[in-house]
Amino acid sequence: MLIRKLALAGAFALSATTAMAACSFENDVEVKTLSAGFEAWKAVTDAMAECGNVQAELDQEFRTKQPAAFAANPSLYAVGGVSNGTITPLLNEGTIRPLDDLVEKYGQNLSPNQLIRVDGQVMAIAMMVNTQHMMYRSDIFEELGLDAPVTYDDVLDAAAAIQEAGVVDYPLGATMQSGWNLAQDFNNMFLGYGGTFYNEDSTPAVNSEAGLKALETMKALTEYMDPEYLISDSTYVQQQFQQGKIAMANLWGSRGGAMDDPAESQVVGKVGSSAAPIAEEGNAPATTLWWDGIVIAKNITDEEADAAFRVAMEGLDSEMVQANNGAAIWLVSGYEPNDMAMGAIATATADPAPVSYPSTSQMGLMHTAIGNELDAFFTGGRSAEETLAAIEESYTSAAKEAGLLQ
Amino acid sequence: MKFKTFAMFVGPSVFLMLLFIAFPLITVLINSFQVTQPVFTTQEIETCTPGFLTQTCTTEVKTIPVLGDDGSPITTTQWVGLSSYANVLGGDRFTRALADLNMGAILQIDFWKALRFTLTFTLVTLPFVLGLGLAIAVVVNNATKAVKGPVIFISLLPFIITPVIGALSIRWLFYGDGILTVWLELWFDTDLSIAANGWAVEFLMMFYRIWHVAPFAFVIFYAGLQTVNQDTLESAIIDGASRWERLRFVVIPHLMPLIVFITLIHLMDAYRAFEEVIGFSSESQRITLQYLTYDYLRPDDAGNRQISSASASAMLTMIGVVILLAAPLRRTWRDHRG
């Protein structure tokens, strides 16, 4: 018995070594990576690790750690996983290097769509797009004779019908956890109503018609949600969906795959997806486009950068994508979109298309100000006008301290 | 003791206090009067972002920091006087609300909101911690020897548990479809949403703090009870004093220095409450002063952090602790001098 177990263990060990061989070269330079911790990053860093000498750190607090870690000399990590929202401090502080020569050397398999150029130089390699899509329980919608919602008015109508039928605890779910999530939900709606966050001279502009409409719609939506929506983040909404407690949610595309995971979900095959709803006729879907990708630190030697980039290319090859097709909407060749990805793809290719998240120094301050001040509106203490005025004041004082406003 | 011996014993401690407490404190104080900003410039930048099939490139004017020769942003530091303090206190919004005598508007400013909650939290939990701690100590002291050990162990458990884990376990009992919420819902036949109700969250946070700290008071009181003069107690019994009178006139006066000690420690700890906000995710309903400082320090997505405001907020928190501690400290000082 013991011998059989040992033999089995040996076989596993052997298969592990064959997995090593999936990398086309043997990496002998130590490469450290720091990225977010969601499924797609796990897939990519596992594929990178096949080349050997790769230490991957997957941490949801990466956005706090990255700027300081990359500013160190030598940098604490060679490869960083970023999104269009978190690349800003790295670009601003000049802690990542242009990748043009490395792309020329090793990037034959990259499509032009993946090269993120800032001022003509390639600064990052994108691997996936992420955006919100409307996920809904297709079985309930069919039963009640509802169509997939196109606008937020449709969402409200459908929510009322579902409430009436009483088939789920709450018709709607939303990522409205106080802070970053709540602010991002507002941003989506605000852009959906055609708002702009700040003027050219960095003064705030959220106290506008679009701001009022966005708050009004959000408040109307909360009527159909679990009253504890101010603690609900993406994972919470995903679980509500998986446990059959909600029937609709405008959720990140990267969360779609979990709906059909039989180990977690009670609603396998019952969730459909469509484009993120439109807030106002003629406008783009009320959401923002995001990409996730890799950057290479500036404060490392050229040899290290060379090895880091080669390893990263191994992590972003079609082999990896084919093995993890459902984990994200990949930009890498070899990706076959599944049904669940259709909603997010419809969002991204809508006409007019949603803008990508406007990542700037001003937007960072604005995002924080919105996150801090919206609470009082939703817990009932403050009117929409007062809340928007408070956001502007909060932004102004932070912008003065940051030196963006005089 | 000779001065030299005294100095050799105290020296290392004084040195470490200066290094790890006084020096950082001075830095924070200086930071609260200074603002360090990068030098910004505006530049037209073309940024390309991938769509699903093709890229879209946009050219826009972006405000970016100027990089120096060493590759890091150039910064300037200015003295700004009390402006960061004014900022934390609410600036124009505060003066406007004050002029209108509008209490509601004042309490919507983060600092005052945090101060209101922190003070209530500190002062409401204090009598419960003292009372509960004393009650447990008296009960344990009167328990038979056989059960004393296990009872002491069980009473100490809440104090041993890691604070965040303790807060989370109470949160899981009540938030969402927590076991206790489901029971309460069945019992009263209603639909409860604890996390959506500010006062319910506030109550849970206080409940958690009392549950967590009472064992500390218990241990101190229990030790104190061992030193109560048995002769005095016996003569009180002979004088016909009831159990309550013995507690009131013999035990409590004997424990008074310990009560003051626990009050001091609790005021200090509770005023700096932080883990409750994280454990109960109460940011939308209730925040504490310590959390406010943390919130200023946390970098946003663009990497910006409000260090000056955070320092000012930290200094204000410290001043608050000093004011709170003044009364009990004066008392100890007086007792000390006899």
UniProtKB/TrEMBL annotation, chain A:
Domain of life, source organism: Bacteria
Signal peptide bounds: 1-21
PROSITE patterns reported in the protein's UniProt record: PROKAR_LIPOPROTEIN
Xref: SUPFAM superfamilies: Periplasmic binding protein-like II (SSF53850)
Annotated localization: Periplasm
Keyword Nucleus attributed: no
Family statement drawn from the similarity comment of this UniProt entry: Belongs to the bacterial solute-binding protein 1 family.
Name recorded for this polypeptide: Maltose-binding periplasmic proteins/domains
Automatic annotation (TrEMBL), chain B:
Subcellular location, record wording: Cell membrane
Membrane-topology descriptor: Multi-pass membrane protein
Pfam families found in the cross-reference section: BPD_transp_1 (PF00528)
Domain (ABC transmembrane type-1) ranges: 115-328
Keywords assigned: Cell membrane, Membrane, Transmembrane, Transmembrane helix, Transport
Cellular compartments per GO CC: plasma membrane
Transmembrane segments: 7-30, 117-140, 152-174, 206-225, 246-267, 307-327
CDD domains in the record: TM_PBP2 (cd06261)
Domain of life of the source: Bacteria
Record SUPFAM superfamilies: MetI-like
Entry annotated with the keyword Acyltransferase: no
Primary localisation category: membrane
GO biological process: transmembrane transport
Family (UniProt): Belongs to the binding-protein-dependent transport system permease family.
Name the record gives this protein: Lactose transport system permease protein LacF
Annotated source species: Jannaschia donghaensis
